[in-house]
Structures
1.
Amino acid sequence: PRLANQIAAGEVVERPSSVIKELIENAIDAGSRRIEVELEAGGARLIKIRDDGSGIAEEDLPLALSRHATSKIESLEDLEGVASLGFRGEALASISSVSRLELVSNADEDPTAGWRVVAEGRDMEPRVSPAPHPRGTSVVVRDLFFNTPARRKFLRTEKTELSHAEEVFRRLALSRYDIGWTLRHNQKALHQLRPVSDAAGGERRISALLGGKFLDNALHLDIEASGLRLWGWVGLPTHSRAQADQQYFFVNGRVVRDRLVAHAIRQAYRDVLFHGRHPVFVLYLELDPAVVDVNVHPTKHEVRFRDGRLVHDFLFSSLHRALGEARP
Ligand code: ADP
Ligand code: MG
């Protein structure tokens, strides 16, 4: 199983940021309200994710590390419209096969309860021992790729790995305003984000994550039609800091990079005199989970809409109208 896990790890675990993404998604799936991320050396030396979610019961701890063990899906029908971010039961097994992984968790209210398992890329049953932890889970991943030198060589500088990690953090923090987040790197706090519940709070978070310039002359929109809702912020023509990478699109709370979506947005901007400008946006599309498949591929951010035409037209016309009305 170790080799199989290491091979599977090649698909999910490319670099520290991919580990961070999987661990944060698990914390979100566990219903956490606070998620703390701590990194050292861009995440290559240490990744620690602490959450206050449901926790994992003692008897489930070793299982959580084994391949294809997921608590999130019970039947094939569940696959239709999966609500959780993970469901393949692959991430922890893969990560533990290429790192020194420690899992401490408590599914009880009692803060003196809790259990720890340690896996060091070895082919053996993880041993469970008592370890007090407040309700929730901490996952510590040390020395990523310590036993796969060929992969380790592909890691870039600390700065580059950190910027990938921050990007993952940014996307996930933009996907859940109701969760409080912190990000620390080499003992230094990079982000401390309180949970927010209104548009003003949302704007504070966006400024903190994307820079205060992002909202200069940006337009807030919230449009609903035929079972679809589009809300968020788009940069206007005079936007002073149009950065190519500040494009965030979420479908039912998941980060998505999709051709149909990109096309609809580009068309709308092009029509409203954005020639040659790069659109910047943070946009959220919400629709009935039954009419969209967000699980096309574990790492690519594609989606499949049952009625692509409808979604495309809705995005295009909503943006077109909002941008057109805002035009000076
Ligand atoms: P998946 O997320 O696809 O189910 P993972 O390998 O990421 O697979 O996780 C395996 C299982 O471990 C999950 O199904 C869940 O039951 C448990 N788990 C992992 N992380 C957490 C967490 N932070 N809080 C609670 N349970 C967790
Ligand atoms: Mg997972």
2.
Amino acid sequence: MQVRLEQLTKAFESRKKDSVIAVNKLDLTIESGKLIGLLGPSGCGKSTTLFMVAGIHDVTDGKIYFDDRDVTELSADKRGIGLVFQNYALYPHLSVWDNIAFPLLNSKDMKKRLKKQFAEQHSNSPNYKAYINKLVEDAAKLVEITAYLDRKPGELSGGQQQRVAIARAIVKSPSILLMDEPLSNLDARLRIQTRDEIKRIQQQTGITTIMVTHDQEEALAISDEVIVLKDGLLQQQGAPQDVYDNPANQFVAEFISRSQINMVHGKIATNKLYLGQEEWFPLPAPLMDQEVTIGLRYENIKHAMENIERSFTASVTAKARIGGISTVQVRLADGQQITLLNDHDESLRESERLNLVVKPQSILVFNQK
Ligand code: ADP
């Protein structure tokens, strides 16, 4: 199912009278069957957006469409969505089976729908009870927790509990799956494993899925598309690699980066790009003369063996090692400092002069703020 947001806005009234605009005129289309990473720093409006799509928060302004249907005023239980929360939100006193079956057994609308489905008998179940059991078992199978159906949530690991929560969300065959930071309570190893599981489950079911995360690596790893928000405003939407290669602005460039990014001063003059005062690259297309900010990702700056065309010289000022990553800081001819990954050369000495190169397509040029 396609999800479309039109000028979606949420303002929270604060005690000090001035309201907080958590989501600001968001226009978005999420195509059917896609896995979307809704991304941005804490407080940028991700959860508020998700909760409006879910029907948990009222909207202040704007519209929400599922395909062509306006669902803006529809209550949460009528939207046909599955929800997964950061803290799993399982019922501790119920078994895994009962937790997964809960949405099937405790909603009048759902019961009506299931009875109808059973009557039409698309399943091979001999009776209604067996039909429900099959739905629960199918969901458990999909998330690979069939061995734990009799256990209580407290007897499972965090990763297993999150799988139960996912099974509970998908057992009712939702048209849209909404996940709010589903991985952030898991340790690093489980996070990667569960992240890949979410991808597999989403691909297997084909359910349009929106996953909120503040972790860009997580979003880039599994999303078909990422949506980047800042201060409630849409910054960019696109395939992870496209957003990485062509960030819409400095914020996106800094946020969507495998390593970090240098922002240095440059200018455009007579269709050439200058790094500091150094003439550097002819521009592929004419641009107005102006001061610019140049974004250079650490991982895209390489040592050149010799002083080849379009290389630039710099002298080593410091080296650092954080975790397994080794970096070197260098000073450019005009005094600006940049950092790059120190991939190979552990023997670099301070003040040593280096020739550096950057692939033209990895140079990001931004208007100055
Ligand atoms: P994110 O999920 O990106 O961390 P949120 O959507 O939770 O961000 O919050 C966006 C903004 O709205 C923040 O400034 C937050 O403080 C504010 N906010 C969120 N929920 C409420 C609420 N119930 N009442 C008042 N302000 C809220």
3.
Amino acid sequence: ISEDWDFAIRVIEKIENAGFEAVIVGGAVRDHLLGIKGNDVDVATNALPSEVKRIFSTTVDIGIEHGTVLVLDEGQPVEVTTYRTESDYSDYRRPEQVIFVRTLDKDLQRRDFTINAMAMTKDGQIIDLFGGQQDIENGVIRSVGDATVRFREDALRMLRAIRFSAQLDFTIEEKTLKAIQQDCDLIEFIAHERIAMELSKLWKGKNVYGGIQALGESHLDKYLIGNYKANEQHWEKFHTTKSEVGWAYLCLLNREEIQDIFDFYRLSNKDKTFIRNVMNAYNSLLKEWSIMDYFTNDLTVLETAYDFAVWQRQNIPFEKTEIKRVKENLNIQSVDELAINGNHLIEWTSKKRGPWIKVGLDAAIIAVLNGYVKNDEQTLKEWYLNEFTNEG
Ligand code: ATP
Ligand code: MG
């Protein structure tokens, strides 16, 4: 097993030494079998949360009602969750209440897809009750048990199926897909933030285009904001490692619906700012980027706008690599690098603080960026007094 898991193995050993069982479960096992470096390692155990807390000296109750204790003893945090089932689903959502159980089987059974329902012992032995290894080999997303039942328990799983298919470039098994098509309207019961979280992961997938197609094929797109099906072909070459790029792309393709997208998915202010910057950069790119566009936008914003323009078959008369080169060669990289600030302007003019300061500094930035004025205090002072006052 991977050395990255040393800390998780030590957690498992301590739980075992206390007389309980513990295994690695879920996404970590899946990613291990796929040879992908996953993000976090989850441990499941038959010990109750109170028992787990007695074994370790430093723990945090991050979801005690769901049976999850965060163990900090081994340097890296490990989530340790008590084996549980989730009965009494209501409103097509995952229940708040869980029932702790003492056997691993039941815990694996409640998991959504066969590829996510495997466990691994500390020696690397795989426990696979539902054919998850076979499905990994064939690249298949398949519900554990009866797909219809599982989606009616928790409708978010429908979108998770699509997210995993995009993330891993897997196909959705026929019965599983049929069940989604049949009950797609249940997605309306799911909180939009949770939908947005799945889409954020979808954007970073290996096959985003396949995911967008699956959204249309499953009819889930009917219940989401954004014209997924109509814009399907535009996603063909889409690839990113940053979820905000996906959101920006969705907004660029649905420009009349931007506010609705912001509201429906409850996007963060950070994402919204990024999206607005990309939109502005895209619009000005269709004319021509000024040096200020390069200065005010970060590289990801500019590259996203550029990629979108290329995807839209706009004729852009320069290579993408130019963007980085131009940006790196700017005379100043940020406002902080300007040799003067607002206090200088006040001192030179004896005027009261006001909006005129920003006007003056912006002009100075443009002058320095264009190389009209050298970026030192004395030169800028002469230039400023000459440009903005009559005394100069
Ligand atoms: P990722 O790499 O995106 O974190 P993951 O498989 O770890 O993938 P999580 O959402 O972190 O996904 O969930 C961890 C595990 O919990 C899953 O592998 C799955 O076994 C189980 N799980 C998560 N959400 C659900 C759900 N809605 N229904 C059933 N099981 C779920
Ligand atoms: Mg995870």
4.
Amino acid sequence: KKGSVSLMDYKFLETATNHFRESDILGVGGFGCVYKARLADNLDAAVKKLEGGSPDAIKEFQTEVDLLSRIQHPNVISLLGCSVHGETRLLVYELMQNGSLETQLHGPSHGSALAWHHRMKIALDTARGLEYLHEHCSPQVIHRDLKSSNILLDSSFNAKLSDFGLAITDGTQNKNNFKLSGTLGYVAPEYLLDGKLTDKSDVYAFGVVLLELLLGRKPVEKLAPSQCQSIVTWAMPQLTDRTKLPNIVDPVIRDTMDLKHLYQVRKCINTSSVMLYLPTI
Ligand code: ACK
């Protein structure tokens, strides 16, 4: 129940596990599997399950709980409960019958089926959710990973923001422990290249979502390996001056860069180069 979310709610785990079957799978996210559940009071819910998990995944779980247990808005997903039992972590959300915007637009049932009035409303709902995070939450919340797969749709296609694991609530990110987070194609250029994170980073991602709604397809396609290779080859000479490496590479890594870290640098270059593909739409 809202307001009584506890990280160590063992009792809830017993109740929750009794009410979903592993066969009732809704989908698989980066975090773990999501199952359909029926709670004791005939309330349908979605249960996200994290088994074990890296320190980063556990931190994301904690951020999600901390944040969602204290914010509430019609365009933000409701967290009904959570639990930690040994290595098993559960997050229980309201059920969003129409899944994610990504699946609606790009899934097997084809995006063209999503009516224009629904697309308009989804854009508006997303903007309202963002406005709430940016203007009405104190401290301000920056989502940091807004994308179509994190916009969920209920039975009437009302949209709600989800997945707050990467959200930031202290305004700015500490440059000393800067770690680029987000999703390729949605990351704002100034954040990608300079580590400058503001609420406008979410607004940039929102712009990409608007393009998706308009085009009915992903505005940034994955590059073929040969394209990536030529971009890396093109960009490598710029890397001979290590001080010119973008801030997205941790300063310690920048000064002691070896082959092990080259992969990280390449990943960054590929990412920033992919951004250049956006205006070609
Ligand atoms: O696109 P989908 O059908 O919607 O597949 C993904 C999958 O789980 C992994 O994230 C679905 N999902 C996530 N949260 C919920 C929810 N609260 N209600 C319904 N489906 C959800 C998402």
